[in-house]
Amino acid sequence: MFREKIKELLAQKEGKRALINEKTNEMRQLLSNEDATDEDLTRAKSLRSEIDAAEKEIRSIEDDLKLYRKAAKGNPAPDPHKRSQNNEDENEEKRNFNAYLHQEHRDGTTGITSSDVVATIPESILYNPENEVKSVTDLSQLVTQFQATTASGKYPVLKRATERMNSVEELQKNPELAKPEFEEVDWKVSTYRGAIPLSQESIDDSAIDLTSLVATNANEQKINTTNFAIAAVLKAFTAKSVAGESVDDIKHILNVDLDPAYNKMIIASQSFYQYLDTLKDKNGQYLLHEAITDGSPRTLLGVPVTVVEDELLGAAGEAHAFIGDLTRAVLYANRKDIQVRWVDNDIYGQYLQAVTRFDVKAADKNAGYFVTPSAASK
Predict the structure, then answer these.
(1) How wide is the angle at C-alpha 48 spanned by C-alphas 44 and 52, nearest 5°?
(2) According to the model, what pLDDT value does residue 133 have?
(3) Residues 96, 10: contact at Cβ < 8 Å?
(4) How far apart are CA 376 and CA 115, in angstroms?
(5) CA-based max dimension of the chain
(6) 162 to each of 159, 311, 326, how far by Cα in Å?
(7) Which residues of 174-197 are buried (b: 16+ CB within 10 A; e: fewer)?
(8) Nearest-5° angle of CA 5, CA 51, CA 9?
(9) What is the end-to-end Cα distance of the chain in Å, rounded?
(10) What are the DSSP calls for 274-295, one per residue?
(11) Among 79-83, 219-223, 350-354, whose mean pLDDT is lowest?
């Protein structure tokens, strides 16, 4: 009895969440319209009220779920209108959803089957797989990122001021200041999405939090997608070659080629990092300084160095780097961050949909260089 009621409440909760998403999207479309009418604004306010009401109903359903779960463990049957005053544990949402996934579903075909996740399905012991040891830098956190409210537009980038003020005698009229100059960057978001089905057998028989595992993997794929897009922009910057076993060419880029106002950093492929790690000063001391504490960056000549995989900036074994001001160099228009949603599908299981929408453009083309060491320097 309790199990059936919990299923019913979970289905109600998912239905309310889908309704909230639908009404939220409609409200955003109305408010983002530059030609919005009074009727549009009235409709948007009505949608906001409906969203608030639905959120209140979800909180009520969650209270009922908590009571029924306690009852299912042996407590007396709860009054569905009696609310618990205890705060939910931060993992309650995850447990709720996993319980929902473990319910009965329609017959049909399967996508990911039990054999695909056999390592997580126990025979007599539980097994929780370890993540592959792999460090991935999220480059979108290092560039200029703004929240796009439309599918396309222009982003003004303020150029560095080069004009000077004039000397003026007392009580004389103020001369005009030079007007600030802007460079407009055109952007247009693209949609990146995918889906993966999970069979109900794999959900039922898996000993781990399978939903969290797959959702985490989807987020990692999102980071790979944005990194690849940002790297494509970096590779289009003016190319420079650094030669010899000394650091002189890199010093020239940092000291002369780049404006002193830029906040310089180095995004190095693994092979380029190996090249940097072998550079020495005249006294035979290595120039690359490792991080002193956890969280602090490696530095070369006082400039922070971030390492990415070779394939991001070229091919395996190729040494490349971007040297410059990444914040000034790249514009990231974020229309929709990663959104992961579980929905029923015409299979005996669940369907994971993941989507992200963004665009990446070069903002200040003088803010950096795409650097490759000569063959003798690798």
Answers:
(1) 170
(2) 45
(3) yes
(4) 50
(5) 92
(6) 9, 39, 21
(7) eeeeeeeeeeebebebeebeeeeb
(8) 5
(9) 69
(10) HHHHT-B-TTS-B-EE--SSTT
(11) 79-83
Q: Is the pLDDT of residue 331 over 70?
A: yes
**Which tokens belong to 265?**
């950093």
Tokens of 143: 């560039």
CA distance 283 to 246: 12
130-145 mean pLDDT: 71
303-308 vs 265-269, strand pairing mode: parallel
Instruction: Give the contacts of 120 (CB within 8 A, at least 6 positions apart).
Output: 127, 128, 129, 206, 207, 208, 210, 213
* Helix 92-101 / helix 210-234 crossing angle, nearest 10 deg: 110
Predicted model pTM: 0.60
Instruction: Indicate the pairing of strand 330-344 with strand 144-147.
Output: parallel
pLDDT score of 126:
36
- Tokens 């990194």 map to which residue? 227
Query: Cα–Cα distance between 175 and 165 in angstroms, integer?
Result: 8
Q: What Å distances lie between residue 328 and 145, 169, 234, 324, CA to CA?
A: 11, 38, 12, 9
What SS3 class is residue 133?
coil
